[in-house]
Write a structure and sequence with these properties.
There is one protein chain. The protein is an alpha/beta fold and about 500 residues long. Helix content is about 40%, strand content about 20%. Strands 12-15-16-11-10-18-19 form a 7-stranded mixed β-sheet, sandwiched between helices. It has a 5-stranded parallel β-sheet with strand order 7-6-5-8-9, sandwiched between helices. It has a 3-stranded antiparallel β-sheet with strand order 3-4-23, with no helix packed on it. It has 14 helices and 23 strands. A hairpin with a 6-residue loop joins β1 and β2. It is globular and about 80 Å long. Bound molecules: nicotinamide-adenine-dinucleotide (NAD). The site of nicotinamide-adenine-dinucleotide has 29 residues, from α8 and α9.
Length: about 500
């Protein structure tokens, strides 16, 4: 496996010797074996990288936005060419099944396509002025260095969501990836640098991508913290746990800088009496067990109407019993490993707590996979609860789905909203009134509220993010790009007099 990852990295243009050291071990969740060990950037190196990124921003902002889009178009081409290799590296280092590793790279390609179009559409408004002979308008400008912090479970797509938009908006990007998945970051960085080289070879002087436009910072939390504290980082986009988000938010609030926070979720689905159960079963299974329950949008709480509970829940258990658990590189596998021992232990602690609250636990046991005995593989768990308890308010980053019976839709919506997180939610119903209520002002309080699809697996075209402890940030599609720019309101007087706003008279 080690030789395989080295081969894949070389194929993408990585010289591993440039990164090797003794600080950041990258182990594969597949079998717990060391893939490579990297050195962390020193304080001085982090500072130098931010220096370079800041200098790059001052040049890059002058390049016309559609030309900036050309760089992202070329990066999208590199991703298309190397999708198979990068997808495999994601699987080897993050442990998600190959289909999902490839899907993650596809998500990067999709956001590149979106950003290329966006590069010709960074438009502002013209606003009616109250003064005669005046024009008022709103213009969007690049903001500066964007510092991206990413989590292990989407080791490359999250950077791309941020970076593709940040670059076309005229910013430079410094990236501190998860210490659990540094190799995927190194590989992605190499692909981006290939695109930069092609871009610069076709560029007129002054229109090229400057050195330092994309800086990769390797390290653990303290390295991320140093990047967050640096005043030259104008926007911090941080994806990870709510604990991390609170720390980042505090530092950024102190120095009054902007953040995009994409934090933990605790996502629910309501299955109503009129639901198409065939569709619901597939959506529940993918949302609850996909990526071994390690998505921020994983389905963690299922509220099933009393009238269909005894049909649906036994069916889910039957499916759970037969789920193919194993090496994520194998085609037949649907459930790969948890990221590490700590994730396994957190899952077992949560199951013990559920039992103490009279929860009926199905599955959840460790599964030994031949040839990968040191990997932490588990059977996804269904936990039947008589009501929503305090334990269910916490996100446990593992495949545990709590199931609760409901009779009154309002009760189910209240449970949906009762938890501190507010990322994703969904309802399965064919009753138009229930669907509309769920999406209305008094329905789900989450950033994502779906009807007849599960809570996980968002498309890049919509703004992605959630409320409350999820952090309130929005990334990806819709008008999320505005967070990566600063807005300037311009009023132009083309008359020969100087009327003041609000009709104020100020004669001198
Ligand atoms: P984590 O919080 O442990 O780490 C995430 C990143 O933050 C890492 O790069 C880490 O080094 C860095 N970090 C931690 N503390 C920091 C600090 N004080 N200052 C600066 N950087 C710091 O999260 P994880 O275990 O890698 O990922 C799982 C979590 O991420 C889950 O809670 C999941 O829901 C969440 N997540 C959210 C989204 C989303 O879009 N909402 C997407 C993916 C994952």
């Amino acid at each position: 496996m080690t030789s395989n990852i080295h081969k894949l990295l070389t194929e993408l243009g990585v010289n591993l010797a440039d990164y090797q050291g003794n600080d950041i071990p990258s182990t594969s969740p597949i079998n717990g074996l060391l893939l490579a060990s990297l050195r962390a950037d020193t304080e001085e190196q982090v500072k130098q990288k931010i220096d370079r990124a800041h200098a790059a921003f001052l040049e890059w902002r002058k390049v016309p936005a559609p030309r900036r889009g050309e760089l992202i178009r070329l990066f999208g081409e590199e991703l298309r060419t190397h999708k198979a290799a990068l997808g495999q590296i994601v699987t080897l280092e993050a442990g998600k099944i190959l289909q999902e590793g490839l899907g993650e790279v596809q998500e990067m390609i999709d956001i590149c396509d979106f950003a290329v179009g966006l590069s010709r559409q960074l438009y502002g408004l013209t606003i009616a002025s109250e003064r005669p002979g005046h024009r008022m308008m709103e213009v969007w400008h690049p903001i500066g260095v964007v510092g991206v912090i990413s989590a292990f479970n989407f080791p490359v797509a999250v950077w791309a969501w941020n970076a593709a938009l940040a670059f076309v908006c005229g910013n430079s990007v410094t990236w501190k990836p998860s210490e659990k998945t540094p190799l995927t970051a190194v590989a992605t960085h190499a692909l981006f640098m290939k695109a930069v080289a092609r871009f610069n070879s076709t560029s007129a002087t002054g229109n090229d991508a400057p050195e330092g436009l994309a800086e990769l910072i390797i390290g653990a939390r303290d390295t991320g913290a140093q990047m967050v504290e640096d005043k030259r980082v104008a926007l911090v986009s941080a994806t990870g746990s709510t604990r991390m988000g609170r720390q980042v938010a505090e530092v950024c609030a102190k120095r009054l800088t902007r953040t995009i926070l994409e934090l933990g979720g605790n996502n629910a689905m309501i299955v109503a009496p009129s639901a198409d159960l065939e569709m619901a079963v597939r959506a529940i299974t993918f949302s609850a067990v996909g990526t071994a329950g390690q998505r921020c949008t994983t389905l963690r709480r299922l509220f099933v109407h009393d009238s269909i509970y005894d049909t649906l829940v036994p069916r889910l258990k039957k499916i759970y019993k037969a789920l193919p658990i194993g090496n994520p590189l194998e085609k037949s596998t649907l459930i790969g490993p948890l990221v590490d021992q700590a994730a396994y232990e957190a899952m077992q602690t949560a199951l013990t707590a559920a039992k103490a609250e009279q929860g009926k636990v199905f599955g959840g046991e460790r599964v030994v996979v031949a040839g990968a005995e040191s990997g932490y593989y588990v059977r996804p768990s269904i936990v039947e609860m008589s009501s929503q308890t305090a334990h269910m308010h916490h996100e446990v980053f593992a495949p545990i789905m709590y199931v609760v019976r409901y009779t009154d839709l309002q009760q189910a919506i209240d449970w949906n909203n009762e938890v501190p997180q507010g990322l994703s939610s969904s309802i399965f119903t064919t009753d138009m009134r229930e669907a509309e209520l769920f999406m209305s002002d008094v329905g789900s309080d989450c950033g994502i509220a779906n009807v007849n699809i599960g809570p996980s697996g968002a498309e890049i075209g919509g703004a992605f993010g959630g409320e409350k402890d999820t952090g309130g940030g929005r990334e990806s599609g819709s008008d999320a790009w505005k967070a990566y720019m600063r807005r300037s309101t311009n009023t132009v007087n083309y008359s020969h007099s100087l009327p003041l706003a609000q009709g104020i008279s100020f004669d001198i």
